[in-house]
Amino acid sequence: MPVAYEVPRIDALSAPPPSVQADVLVVPIAEEHSPAIFVEFDAAVGGALGAALARGEFTPKALETFGAAIVTGGWTASRILFVGGGPREEMGPERFRRMAASAVSVARQQRRARVAWLDVEPGRMEDVDRIDVLGEAFTVANFDGGIHKSRPDPRFFLTDVTLVSAAAGAADRAAAGRIVGDAVNSARVLINEPGNFLVPATLAEKAASLASVEGVTVEIFDERRLEALGMGLLLGVGRGSAEPPRMLIARYEPAGAPADVMLGLVGKGITFDTGGISIKPADGMERMKDDMAGAASVVAALRAIALLRLPVRAVAVVASAENMPGGRALKPGDILRSASGLTVEVNNTDAEGRLILGDALWYARQIGATHLVDVATLTGACIVALGKITTGLFGTPQPWVDTIRAAADRGGEKVWQMPLFDEYKETLKSDIADMINSPGRPAGAVTAAMFLKEFAGPGPWAHLDIAGTAWADEAKAWMPRGATGAIIRTLVELGRGPLPR
Ligand code: BES
Ligand code: MN
Ligand code: ZN
């Protein structure tokens, strides 16, 4: 089977552009580009840039590309690919990531394996921060998910990326970006895998091998262990499937990290969500293989945090089950007892994510996580509210939510806070148990989060609903169809701290 991606060599160095060796030089251009930059590169391509701009062939709006041959003597490379950045004030991490990815997509189509990015346009970013983002983006863009084709499409990957920058520390930041890009791609591979290739036991094994880097210890709990821990919610969801549920715990405890904080990353790992007895309609159900994106994301983030040697204790807790309507499956109306002791009347077996996360959040707190974040493809209602563009952010107290929002801003990911007013709690009332799991359509993303809150215990907790953002339905210049790896960068940024006390 072919691999889905290759991690290119990435160098960062300072050099005059004519001396840079590559199959193509990528030059970013903002709409309000500086005349000096323009003159040097326009001369190199014999005026082709100026002519294209004059004819309106190249504007340079965001992500437009324009390729031209270098016709002047004295240059080592033979081609320049100009990539538009749009207005400079818009050129933050997300824009640079998409510019790099758009350039990679052109380079790969043209079979150019060695690419150099000339870092001549700062946008609205600090120089070294940009190098980090570029190192990551060039790695993420070197991906082709069609690994199950018996006759794979002709595949072509970049081998070498040179980031030409004079910024101090650029080489280290490029290497850091590459680590994050590699982690993002490893998650995308898992998320793309169909349900017959990935069941809870294999998800746990693959996640364990991703997390097995220096400084990390990994444990997998099988169904007997889950039984002993009283994890009735996770076991209940798993009961309708021939494939038993699993929980994975990966701890990163670097020497010298502050002892009084521990970041807890909790992920939803439903390897396939049929809905169970409250079965989903056939149309689009195949998408539900991505219902373990939260699990893949938290494990990938922990891997990157450990490889970057960030000075923070962190644990990833993944709850995994297959939600199936088998003969022993949960039935609507069944009552489950959670590890925390709370009882739940399951009025809808398709609201399974909040059930397994209830046990996982409780366990993460139990083993000492002080600052919790869970990541889950939790609700269709979140897609109704925010579409495919924005991740739903919920949590308490506000400084913790603000910390996560700031991490998302640095990482160039879109999150938007949703409310958790106490009044919503009424919707969870059950006549015969502590709560129901599915209050119905109004504010569905909020009431799901209210359910999770009951299991998060005292202390900071946040919930990221990636139902809309985990999967791209349409290919874009910067991202193919399929798993996106959303929110991993935000979690890694969170790991850089500081965490609010
Ligand atoms: N995994 C789904 C949520 C989902 C739906 C993610 C569509 C991505 C696309 C989740 O388990 C689910 O089924 N949620 C239900 C909850 C309802 C029964 C309260 C939903 O959103 O319909
Ligand atoms: Mn469901
Ligand atoms: Zn689900």
Task: Note the overall shape.
Answer: elongated
The description of the largest β-sheet is:
8 strands, mixed
- The level 1 CATH classification of the largest domain is Alpha Beta
Ligand names: ligand BES, manganese (II) ion, zinc ion
Output the strand order for the largest sheet: 7-8-10-9-13-17-14-15
| Unreliable parts | none
What's the β-strand tally? 19
Fraction in helix: 25-40%
The overall number of domains is 2
**Rg for CA atoms:** 24 Å
What's the end-to-end separation, in Å?
48 Å
What is the name of the CATH topology of the largest domain?
A: Aminopeptidase
Number of helices: 14
Explain what you see:
With 501 residues, this protein is an alpha/beta fold. It folds into 2 domains: 9-184, Leucine Aminopeptidase, subunit E, domain 1 (3-Layer(aba) Sandwich); 194-496, Zn peptidases (Aminopeptidase, 3-Layer(aba) Sandwich), CATH 3.40.630. The chain contains 14 helices and 19 strands. Strand 9, helix 9 and strand 10 (314-323) form a beta-alpha-beta unit. Helix 4 (127-140) runs parallel beside helix 5 (170-192) and helix 6 runs parallel beside helix 9 (293-307). The protein is elongated, with a radius of gyration of 24 Å. The structure holds ligand BES, manganese (II) ion and zinc ion. Manganese (II) ion is lined by residues 273, 275, 350, 352.
